[in-house]
Amino acid sequence: MTNQLATCIECGCNDFQACEHGCWWVRVDYKAGLGVCSECAHRVKDWDRGDQTLSGATRMLLETPSGTDCRHE
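Request: output the structure for the sequence above.
Response:
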């Protein structure tokens, strides 16, 4: 089954909640529900090596039901 939503592994933005200044998928895997957005392109090398580890901020967003903000540090 394919997810309808992908979440950025770095910042936590998703298909319905883009980054503040806008973004698009540089890498995306809807089956896994994960991707790397254009604002987090520094994670593309990790992704291409097979490292899709979520950042601490993204883990918190996914674990918090009200977590809908996408903020870059």
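The radius of gyration is 11 Å.
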